[in-house]
Amino acid sequence: MRRPAFPMTTVLKLNGLSKRFGPVIANDDVSLTLNKGEVLALLGENGAGKTTLMNMLFGHYLPDSGSIEVADEAGVLQPLPLGHPQVALAAGVGMVHQHFTLAENISALDNITLGSEPLFALRRNRRAARRRIEAIIAQSGLTAPLDTPVGRLSVGERQRVEILKALYRDARILVLDEPTAVLTPQEADTLFENIRMMTAEGLSVIFISHKLREVLAFSDRIAVLRHGRKVGEMATSEADEASIARMMVGAETPELVGAAMVPGVPVLTLSGISVTGRSKRDTLSGVDLTVHAHEILGIAGVSGNGQSGLANVISGLMQPEQGLIKVNGSEIDTPSPVAMVRAGVGRIPEDRHREGIVGAMSVAENMVIERLDDPDVQSRGLLRREAIDDNADRLAKAYDVRGPGVEAPARLLSGGNIQKLILARVFDRSPRLILANQPTRGLDMGAAAEVGRRLLEARERGAGVVLISEDLDEILGLADRIMVIRDGELHEAPSRDREQIGLMMAGEPV
Amino acid sequence: MMDILNILLSESFWAASLRIATPLIFGVLGALICERAGVLNLGIEGIFVVGAMCGWMAVWLGAGLWGGVLVAALAGAFFGLLHAILTVPLGLSQHVSGLGITLFATSVSYYTYRTALPNVSSPPRIEPFQPLDLPILSDLPFLGSVLFQQTALTWLALLMVVVVWYVMNRTALGVALQAVGDNPDSVDAQGLSVYGLRIGAIVAGSALMALGGAFLTMSAFDAFFFGMVNGRGWVCIALVIFASWRPGKALLGALLFGAFDALQVRLQTEIGALVPGQVFLMAPYILSIIALVVAARSADYPRALLTPWFKGQR
Amino acid sequence: MIRIEPRQTQSQAFTIGVPILSALIALGFAAIPLLAAGANPIQAYGEMFRGVFGSVFAFSEVLTRATPLIFTGLAAALAFRAKLWNIGAEGQLYLGAMAAVAIGSGVLDLPGILLLPLIVILGAAAGAAGMVAPTYLKTRFGADEVVTTLLLNFIILIFVQMMLEGPLQDPMSLGWPQSAPVLDQGMLPTLIDRMRVHSGLILALILALLAQFMLARSVWGFRLRAVGENAAAARHAGINVNRSLFGVAILSGGLAGLAGVSEVAGLKGYLTADLSPGFGYTGIVVAMLAGLSPMGVVIAALFIASVFVGADSMSRAMGVSSFLADLVVSVSLLCVLVGGFFARYRVVRASTTGATS
């Protein structure tokens, strides 16, 4: 562990912040302090309230109660008026969101200077702006092309532009919300080196994460949130992985890895599949893949490298230009969602709100939406409402879908319960092949464990599973076999070595 | 074929094209500003009517021609503000709100006109804008009559193309407007007001649209008639897609449209005996649909178009 | 500072209350233009009321006026449910009317029992054709159907004028641009003697009931709702989104076409280019006031028809422009939009000091 380079001066104090969204308590009386030149890791599960807390600091949300103090340039703590991003910016607080807040149709330089020039001036001084940005780049090591529209930059470059935006605004406190979620392990290392360069210059960093490894490796101090409350705070030097994990989830992390099984017959074969999508996200070139019964195949990769394309092909949303798809040994001539469902493919979509449910329709209707032609759903074109409701009651019980009832609109369910609704719909048909695309993203640990348990159960029953995930830990915990997707190409991982897989994700020769 | 060639080479044809294009230039620029900021403004048809009625009536009541232009712009801005309040802070359907504004603005205009002039059989006339008669320039061959014998409002429209282009591409305001139509969060995160930018864009864009209407009663004609806008607003909505939201291409689109319209009027007199006149009347609308279909494929819509944005919700 | 939060549930009271309140506010708003015209609003409202409820005949006129509005209202409501923005009901209405006079005015001299159904079916088919084209351009080329249907309205109206000066012109009309009359046996029978209300109203009511039932209870309605509420999820679930869109396009255009059939073969008897005073556009207001519910369309159409009939009779009695009715209709649309906002969101007061709210 590193010694702090600056005397212990406090630059930020959060005092008893609370925030409710309707019935949900996002933050309950949270207090934190941050010192100059320090990296504070804010740790917690998804939904623990980390992002809400930081959004209050940055003025995006208005706290229900509590106050914030920020050190001014002289180092004296001043109360921060709440609810105004401009004020937070002016006080030297910069935030890099999990979802980048960049306009893709303008250049990096324009994104960086946006809002710091007088709007109604007749001329802009781009040359001066460029000189300042280049100076910041030299100091922090954050390189990015300045004149290309941001839409054409890579994810890593966009993230650097985000940080440059904050530094350009003279940020003395930088909040990074899950900055490594979209990076390869190697890119993440570079980011941490850059952060070190910046803290040496006196910048203070709050670093939000749920990845224990990087938190232990790169922070000076750790604060843990659970269910919106601060449940622990300690120097990183005194922390160890098991104790923090316990603090985060309240109990030991459940071990999920299933017993080894002998793979059965192939249930899915893709040979030479190529798709040209609208972007790199959904483009595949020459993909070969086989999944067997009793097998979970994990697809690792940095987000946006063709995962969407692969998922679209297996779920029937996209017809490949080349290649062959075989499900359960029989070829699918014209892939479509209907053809895939009929062939016995169960599909858990990546974005459950956008593709998984029709939020305005009832839970019961969402449970039969994939099988409207079945005789227990309709007869002669009319819906069998009682049978549909009975089906929903049964599934809600079996899969523990909780909410205001099966007649209520599905959008009223929580994220975890929406995922359970989808699991119920998919698993109830005992599919031979399951496509699970980011199935635990955004879920709390309990719901995520439930998803893992169901996948293992299906594997035991004899199904094959394609598990696409950006969370390497999830894949290492569940998958029998691992493949890495990079630039639309799929390669078998020769081992389960985290470092090696990380290099493959980054496209380095192994 | 010779006939068409003769038409295309005549000064009067190109002068007419520019004249017909003028209200469309205002309209397309107005729609462009709104859509660049992320809001579709289907109130355009009604705002044209309001601009035509208010501009004309102000002059008729003695406000003077430029006074009339100002009144028209303010009236357009008012209805734009209404649309902005409904669609930006309230985030209501931009389609339905826009149609509502069109119905409202049209009926307000018609009701006001009828109430002010209950019993006129022929609409009262005003002294409209006259062609600028510039020394030397207006006497130039060809260009003289095409460019320099237009009215001041046509010149204002051409000036507006340059102004809108400059603001969009060369000022911080333009960058912010482009950003707010692509990703409002990017603007919000930098401490600018999404609502302020969008409302301002809609108000300004609507004022421009109203000038398009004002041109009809104060330059092209000299009186107000019911139904005189006749779908010009909708044509602008099609042209803005054709123009890929760029001021220069907006001018080009409006001019092409004007040229086509001028051509059909002349062809009608040439070969009108062979084909019913309505075929020529339909042509501009059909052309708009074709332009839309051709452009739609590759159209690079502002990403946040039609999507409402609420503060503090992400 | 004021914040906006979505409501967890939407109460029934809002669904019904918002349109009623909007209608009342719009009517109340009419006092301003009335005063501006120098009329006494109380007296004007009285005249309007008398114009609607003053006699059986007056009310039968409301029903007559409501008939095409139910058709165009249904056309808009169904299409909007699927998020297909059919703004072209006005043009589709004229297509239906043209088909009705084209075959009903003497080309086929069939008995009424054959001719009348034929007129209805072909009229609906013509309207449907008018909506299928924009839907094709939307699904195939991504051309915004709002713009194409709006522009088609103008194209079709000019086409009607062309036909009325050409093939469809009544040889007996002395050069006047109007069609030959529909044969007597091809006319929709009137419902009450010496009044204009006709059996098109019955057809409209039956279709509204049917649409209500099919939306809620049929697989077709299920698919339509799914496509409208979340097309991406519907596609993922195996629903053929384009097929659903074409299906609803045919129905929507067909209903608008029936509005034209009903006006020509139920009321006017022949076609002129001023057959519709904007029934297609008003249908959008009807649909929005109805919250896109088919049975709601019937009630909303009756309200709007009352406004028009009442304003007409008030206009005759007091000399105030009947454009007042258009004003009330457009204001009620804007009000119901704003009301829809308050039904979906709550406005919460929050203090900036961060103390308590």
Considering DSSP H and I runs of 4 or more, what fraction of the residues of chain A is helical? 25-40%
Write the CATH homologous superfamily of the domain at 10-105 and 170-249 in chain A. Answer: P-loop containing nucleotide triphosphate hydrolases
The total of helices of chain A stands at: 17
Strand content of chain A: 25-35%
**Number of continuous helical runs of chain C:** 14
Task: Give the fraction of residues assigned to helices of chain C.
Answer: over 70%
Uncertain regions spanning at least 5 consecutive residues of chain C = 351-357
Order of strands side by side in the largest beta sheet of chain A?
6-7-8-3-9-10
Backbone shape of chain C: globular
- Estimate the strand proportion of chain C: under 5%
Structural class of chain C: mainly alpha
- Major pleated sheet of chain A: 6 strands, mixed
Number of strands of chain A: 22
Termini separation of chain A comes to 30 Å
Question: How many individual β-strands of chain C?
Answer: 2
Key structural traits:
heterotrimer; B: 314 residues; mainly alpha; ABC transporter involved in vitamin B12 uptake, BtuC; 13 helices; globular; C: 357 residues; two-stranded antiparallel sheet; 2 strands; disordered C terminus
Describe the structure.
The complex is a heterotrimer of chains A (510), B (314) and C (357). Chain A is an alpha/beta fold and 510 residues long. Chain A contains 17 helices and 22 strands. Among the domains of chain A are: 10-105 and 170-249, Rossmann fold (3-Layer(aba) Sandwich), CATH 3.40.50; 266-344 and 431-505, Rossmann fold. Chain A has helices at residues 50-57, 85-90, 108-113, 126-140, 155-168, 185-200, 212-218, 241-249, 307-315, 337-342, 352-356, 363-368, 385-398, 415-427, 445-461, 472-478, 498-505, and strands at residues 10-21, 24-35, 39-43, 65-71, 77-79, 93-96, 173-177, 204-209, 221-226, 229-235, 266-275, 284-292, 295-300, 322-327, 330-331, 345-348, 378-379, 382-383, 433-437, 464-468, 481-486, 489-492. In chain A, a hairpin with a 2-residue loop joins strand 17 and strand 18. The radius of gyration of chain A is 25 Å and the shape is globular. Chain B has one domain (2-117, 150-296): Orthogonal Bundle (ABC transporter involved in vitamin B12 uptake, BtuC). Helix content of chain B is 70%, strand content 0%. Chain B is built from 13 helices and no strands. In chain B, helix 2 packs across helix 11 and helix 3 packs parallel to helix 5 (94-116). The longest helix of chain B has 27 residues, at 194-220. Chain B starts with a helix and ends in an 18-residue tail after the last helix. With 357 residues, chain C is mostly helical. Chain C has one domain (2-349): ABC transporter involved in vitamin B12 uptake, BtuC (Orthogonal Bundle). Chain C has helices at 12-29, 31-36, 41-53, 56-81, 89-104, 112-141, 145-164, 200-217, 219-229, 231-236, 241-268, 279-289, 294-318, 323-344; strands at residues 2-6, 345-349. The longest helix of chain C has 30 residues, at 112-141. Chain C is globular, with a radius of gyration of 22 Å. Chains in contact: A-B, A-C, B-C. At the B-C interface, helix 5, helix 11 and helix 13 of B face helix 7, helix 12 and helix 14 of C.
